[in-house]
Design goal:
Number of domains of chain A: 2
Structural class of chain A: alpha/beta
Largest sheet of chain A: 5 strands, parallel
CATH class of chain B: Alpha Beta
Helix content of chain B: 40-55%
CATH superfamily of the largest domain in chain A: Cobalamin-binding domain
Oligomer: heterodimer
Strand content of chain B: 15-25%
Shape of chain A: globular
Largest sheet of chain B: 5 strands, antiparallel
Strand order of the largest sheet of chain A: 2-1-3-4-5
Strand content of chain A: 5-15%
Distance between the termini of chain A: 30 Å
Number of helices of chain B: 8
Shape of chain B: globular
Helix content of chain A: 55-70%
Number of strands of chain B: 7
Bound molecules: cobalamin, iron/sulfur cluster
Radius of gyration of chain B: 18 Å
Number of domains of chain B: 1
Radius of gyration of chain A: 18 Å
Structural class of chain B: alpha+beta
CATH architecture of chain B: 3-Layer(aba) Sandwich
Number of helices of chain A: 9
Strand order of the largest sheet of chain B: 1-2-3-7-4
Chain lengths: 213, 240
């Protein structure tokens, strides 16, 4: 237990190397990997999330913690798979065709990973067909799309329409974001959700899974 | 007049509080040690990698009318149109921080250095925005160098994508200005590469021409509200 608290504490401080070493130590001590993940890592990230919400810490601090979380998850992932522990959910994310801006999308991807979701990041300049193909192949739960300018937003509607045509629409949730995107636009094109920032995106994805359970 | 300017790094000020404000961090916030370290590292990387450049080309009112009309998608009533018709000087401009910074940000994210990558991106965004102001100051200095200006001369920058000037206006702007010469290209969706680039028009004239009431229908959904600072600049001391 002491060790898991240490993991949580060091994760909150963004000490990725220490968190990775402690995670390996916990594995060697035969602590079940889901316990290491839930009581050490995710518990630590939850505290980070709370402090962020209360403006006690800021995005760079959260990103350091997320980095520590991701490093530790690299250690745990093969063990979790071996133990048959289901992942929380799978998100396919990218910046739409012709959109080369990807910092916003990257932040969302990192925070989703930090919250324990599996994220397949398609990068930027992603054509509608690729979102659909990868979501189908990977059996994804969520498609997330990002745009910096209104001029690239029409691709988002194309993805929604293609999801309908390919019979994916009821299988995956589609969420959109980026500076010029709005809730009204999301509704208009038939997307399931709009999120204004990374923390809100995590809450939104969590809510999709609550709806389904 | 068509000129290419390479700015000196000392021309680009990086006021920490202002940059953090653009990240939504209040002035009185207490920052972690990690945070301060990340900020310093990002500021250093910026100094090392930024390649700030501008291209500025004077243009007459009737030629600019054509550029401004663009693809015919502007809002019917908009402040830019009212302002440029009253101007004494007009010049198209594009500024960029160059490709290396954005490549570095991508590399940092790819290597899991998210915090520093984010901070470098944020510092660069702030600086790119300020480069447009520097372009305005540059034109101001040029006008002042050529002839004694009216006391209240102000040169301010306006960009497609703001205040009713449709983003597609960049197509005609690029045809007339040809900023490819400083490495800026425009794709079919009107996105510029390098990403930290700004395009637009510099409008010079008496300070009061830049003042207007920001109650156009599209102001309701505007998140930028950049007219407020712009109008404050218009009534401040001369200097672009
Ligand atoms: C900083 C900034 C710039 C900087 C840097 C650009 C960049 N992003 O690298 C500079 C000064 C260079 C710039 C230039 C321009 N800009 Co600008 N810019 C902004 C500004 C102020 C912030 C954008 C930003 O980087 N935010 C920080 C990042 C981290 O946030 P983000 O990408 O929005 O992502 C967050 C959320 O949106 C969300 N999110 C993002 N993606 C996703 C995806 C999913 C699935 C979910 C759930 C959530 C989500 O979560 C992210 C994390 O919190 C916005 C206005 C605003 N307040 O948003 C205008 C804005 C985007 N710019 C605008 C314009 C017009 C331009 C220019 C065309 C102006 C010009 N003519 O030069 C150029 C275009 C540049 C180019 N390369 O083509 C307009 C776009 C309007 C439109 N109709 O589309 C905006 C909206 C301002 C406005 N007018 O209101 N810009
Ligand atoms: S509120 Fe926004 S759109 Fe309206 S004039 Fe000001 S900056 Fe332009």
């Amino acid at each position: 237990m002491e060790l898991l608290s240490k993991i949580s504490f060091n994760l909150q401080s963004g000490f990725d190397e220490t968190v990775t070493a402690l995670t390996k130590e916990a594995v060697e001590k035969r602590i079940p990997p889901d316990e290491i993940m839930n009581i050490g890592l995710i518990a630590g990230m939850n505290i980070v999330g709370e402090k962020f919400k209360n403006h006690e810490i800021f995005l760079p601090d959260v990103l350091l913690a997320a980095r520590a979380m991701n490093c530790a998850m690299e250690v745990l992932k093969p063990l979790l798979i071996k133990d048959g522990i289901p992942i929380k959910g799978k998100v396919v994310i990218g910046s739409v065709k012709n959109d080369l801006h990807d910092i916003g999308k990257n932040l969302v991807a990192i925070l989703l990973k930090g919250a324990g979701f599996e994220v397949i990041d398609l990068g930027n300049d992603v054509p509608a067909e690729k979102f659909i193909r990868v979501a189908a192949e990977e059996n994804a739960d969520v498609i997330g799309m990002s745009a910096l300018l209104t001029t690239t937003m029409p691709v988002m509607k194309k993805v929604v329409d293609m999801a309908k045509d390919e019979g994916l629409y009821s299988e995956v949730k589609i969420m959109v974001g980026g500076a010029p995107v709005s809730k009204a636009f999301a509704l208009e094109i038939g997307a399931d959700a709009y999120s204004y920032d990374g923390a809100n995106a995590v809450e939104t994805v969590e809510s999709f899974f609550r709806e389904n359970s | 007049m068509r000129s290419i300017t390479k700015f000196a790094m000392e021309d680009i000020k990086l006021p920490q509080k202002e940059i953090l404000r653009s990240q939504g961090i209040p002035d009185e916030a207490s920052l972690s040690e990690n945070f301060e370290r990340i900020y310093m590292e990002a500021a250093e990387l910026f100094q090392e990698l930024a390649e700030p450049k501008a291209i500025i080309a004077g243009i007459g009112v009737s030629d600019f009318e054509e550029v401004f009309r663009g693809e015919g998608l502007n809002e019917k009533e908009n402040p830019v149109e009212e302002i440029f018709r009253k101007s004494s000087h007009l010049a198209l401009f594009a500024v960029t921080l160059g490709p290396v910074l954005s490549e570095k940000v991508t590399e940092l994210f790819d290597n899991g250095k998210y915090a520093i990558g984010y901070m470098l991106d944020s510092v660069s965004s702030y600086a790119a925005d300020k480069l447009a102001d520097l372009a305005a100051q540059h034109l101001y200095a040029e006008i002042v160098g050529r002839a004694a200006p009216a006391n209240s001369l102000r040169v301010l920058n306006y960009s497609p994508g703001y205040c009713g000037w449709h983003m597609s206006g960049q197509k005609k702007l690029f045809e007339a200005l040809r900023p490819e010469e400083i490495g800026i290209t425009l794709n079919e969706s009107c996105l510029m590469s390098p990403i930290k680039s700004v395009s637009g028009v510099l409008i010079g004239g008496p300070g009061e021409i830049h003042e207007f009431v920001n109650s156009y229908p599209f102001c309701n959904t505007c998140i930028a509200r950049s007219c407020i600072e712009r109008m404050r600049n218009a009534v401040m001391d001369a200097g672009g």
